Amino acid sequence: MEAWILQGFAIIGFAITIGLMFILFYIVMCKVNILFNKYYKLQKIKRESKNRFRQPPVAKCYCLYCKYAEYFGDDRCGKCSLWGNDIVIKDNGFCYRADPKK
User: Fold this and answer.
1) Please, is 93 exposed, middle or buried when counting C-beta atoms within 10 Å of its C-beta (0-12, 13-18, 19+)?
2) CB of 47 within 8 A of CB of 53?
3) pLDDT tens figures, 13-70
4) Which of 45, 54, 55, 100 could form a disulfide with 61, with the two C-beta atoms 3.0–4.6 Å apart?
5) Edge-to-edge strands, sheet with 77-80
6) SS (H, E, C) the chain
7) How much is the pTM?
8) What is the pLDDT of residue 1?
9) Of 44, 31, 91, 40, which is closest to residue 66 (Cα–Cα)?
10) CB under 8 Å to 62, separation ≥6 — which residues?
């Protein structure tokens, strides 16, 4: 074969190799970004759950201590029977119609 054909194949092969390396690098960086985002969100959730009762409610009580709250599982999430069980509530939530349990 002629030399210019071999050089053309070499250049095309080199370009394809560089392109595949960039694609592989991009995929790895996307995976690392996803891992960092998951770690950041997990730390944010831990920080929020640790500090969730720092500010007093504007209602009479938190939803956790309201007589209309129906919690299930680990008492972190439930439904409010005051609103027809349509509203999902958290333990640190509160509303203007809250009444403490007796």
Assistant:
1) buried
2) no
3) 999 999 999 999 999 999 999 999 999 999 988 887 777 667 776 677 777 778 877 7
4) 100
5) 69-72, 77-80, 88-90
6) CCHHHHHHHHHHHHHHHHHHHHHHHHHHHHHHHHHHHHHHHHHHHHHHHHCCCCCCCCCCCCHHHECCEEEECCCCEEEEHHHCCCCEEECCCCCCCCCECC
7) 0.47
8) 66
9) 91
10) 53, 91, 92, 93, 94, 98
pLDDT at 9 over 80: yes
Spatial contact of 53 and 92, defined as CB atoms under 8 Å apart: yes
**pLDDT of 17:** 97
Task: Please report, for the chain, the start and end positions of each structural domain, with discontinuous segments joined by +.
Answer: 1-51, 57-102
Residue with tokens 């595949």: 20
**The tokens of 42 are what?**
């997990």
How many residues are given for the chain? Answer: 102
Structure-token pair, residue 86:
């349509």
- If pLDDT is split at 50, 70 and 90, which confidence band does 95 have? confident
